[in-house]
């Protein structure tokens, strides 16, 4: 293990003692309930550009947060100082806030019977024994692989190697205490081809809990280069309606909008385009979406959520029908429901792949737009109206014909979801949302 890595067992014992002391002190000072979290972590990032070291960044962080309740009045405070006096001052500050806060009949800890009591090892911690010199070498190899791939690659935004480890422990006054170390490492490369107004850039990256599961740096550089040069000599399109295929790296964003729409905060505030849709069809019948918290080494795996509530596998969408929301305790109470163990967000969101690979989806589409990059943030979470700048490729006879740019795609997410023709089996695992490319039957494409 490198000198910067966490000493996970020893550090976890220290944090467990600290968080237990925090909860005890809060009770002694008059809190009727409390929940606390303490964490430590470090990161190392090295970027090489044009063969030279551009940045070396190192951070080591720690933090503590405490939520206290006086009846149904809540106060929260945080600090990065773990000294005894600073911790007590932070708890006292949270109590003072609670005393002046209005009562909220939905405030409070989760019900005790919802808390996790078993803590299986999900294999989330894999230190990467990488010193700065080794990181520089890997980043250099990644960038050089991109330059070697095609002589039209003439510039670079750099190749980056990132190492990250963390450890947290959380506890509450109901007796819950749990925590674990985790790691997340990545390698990325972004390069440029062409000149003047014809310049194009693209990138590729890999991310994993265990660095051994990341693509070889030479492969990441090669893919970044190939994705860049294929965009050269891009054209504009006429305005039309046509099928749109979202390539896997951008398709996950479609489901990110879905998650936001069926999460507790949007629902109880009535700021969602999917209000009152539980047990109703919101996608085409070929769509199944699962929230899966227990994938070993999963990038969003966890035994419990941010409140200590146990997590569980569940189908959120079955045959296009919405079967569940994403709720923490507070939003669940606001809606008169039960928490789903999603305080803090989703876990590994798995969109069930279909039978077609990427080329099969192109053949299925026959004629239309392949989107490989989205620009801007033109999505209305209340109405579902969707309008994004885009770039990609025009497809005829099931084959890519030429790159396109400076276009806008538009529709409404409610309609788009119900007209998903197919989801590919070209699934990428680069984050919490896992899905293949997504073919939508028809959208407006605005061009020249």
From TrEMBL:
Listed GO biological process terms: proteolysis
Database matches in InterPro entries: Metalloprtase-TldD/E_C, Metalloprtase-TldD/E_cen_dom, Metalloprtase-TldD/E_N, PmbA, TldD/PmbA_N, TldD/PmbA_sf
Domain Metalloprotease TldD/E N-terminal, residue spans: 38-98
EC number: 3.4.-.-
Metalloprotease TldD/E central domain span: 125-232
Keyword Protease set for record: yes
Metalloprotease TldD/E C-terminal domain boundaries: 240-447
UniProt keywords, alphabetically: Hydrolase, Metalloprotease, Protease
GO CC annotation terms, alphabetical: cytosol
Catalytic EC class: hydrolase
Database matches in PANTHER family: METALLOPROTEASE PMBA (PTHR43421:SF1)
Protein name in the entry: Metalloprotease PmbA
Lineage start: unclassified sequences, metagenomes, ecological metagenomes
């Amino acid at each position: 293990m490198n000198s910067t890595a966490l000493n996970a067992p020893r550090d976890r014992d220290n944090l467990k003692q600290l968080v237990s002391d925090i909860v005890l002190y809060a009770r002694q000072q008059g809190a009727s309930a409390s929940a606390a979290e303490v964490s430590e972590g470090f990161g190392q990032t090295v970027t090489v550009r044009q063969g030279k070291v551009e940045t070396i960044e190192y951070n080591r962080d720690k933090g503590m947060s405490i939520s206290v309740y006086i009846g149904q009045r809540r106060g929260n405070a945080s600090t990065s100082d773990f000294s005894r006096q600073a911790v007590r001052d932070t708890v006292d500050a949270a109590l003072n806030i609670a005393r002046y806060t209005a009562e909220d009949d939905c405030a409070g800890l989760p019900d005790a019977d919802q808390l996790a009591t078993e803590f299986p090892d999900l294999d989330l911690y894999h230190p990467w024994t990488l010193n700065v010199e080794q990181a520089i070498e890997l980043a250099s190899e990644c960038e050089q692989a991109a330059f070697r791939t095609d002589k039209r690659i003439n510039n670079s935004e750099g190749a980056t190697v990132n190492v990250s480890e963390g450890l947290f422990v959380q506890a509450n006054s109901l007796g819950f205490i749990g925590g674990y170390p985790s790691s997340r490492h990545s390698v990325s490369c972004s390069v440029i081809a062409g000149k003047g107004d014809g310049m194009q850039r693209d990138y590729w990256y890999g991310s994993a809990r265990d660095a051994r599961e990341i693509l070889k740096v030479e492969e990441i550089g090669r893919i970044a280069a190939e994705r860049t040069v294929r965009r050269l000599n891009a054209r504009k399109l006429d305005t039309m309606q046509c099928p749109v295929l979202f390539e896997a790296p951008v398709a996950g964003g479609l489901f990110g909008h879905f998650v936001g729409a069926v999460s507790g905060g949007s629902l109880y505030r009535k700021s969602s385009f999917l209000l009152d849709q539980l047990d109703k069809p919101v996608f085409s019948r070929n769509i199944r979406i699962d929230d899966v918290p227990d994938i070993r080494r999963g990038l969003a795996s966890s035994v419990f959520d941010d409140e200590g509530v146990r997590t569980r596998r569940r189908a959120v969408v079955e045959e296009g029908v919405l079967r569940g929301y994403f709720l923490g305790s507070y939003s669940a109470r606001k809606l008169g429901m039960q928490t789903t163990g999603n305080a803090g967000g989703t876990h590994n969101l798995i969109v069930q792949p279909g039978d077609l690979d990427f080329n099969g989806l192109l053949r299925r589409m026959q004629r239309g737009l392949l989107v490989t990059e989205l620009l801007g943030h033109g999505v209305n979470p209340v109405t579902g109206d969707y309008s994004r700048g885009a770039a990609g490729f025009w497809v005829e006879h099931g084959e890519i014909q030429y790159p396109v740019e400076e276009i806008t795609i538009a529709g409404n997410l409610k309609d788009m979801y119900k007209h998903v023709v197919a989801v590919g089996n070209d699934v990428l695992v680069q984050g919490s949302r896992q899905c293949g490319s997504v073919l939508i039957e028809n959208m407006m494409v605005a061009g020249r």
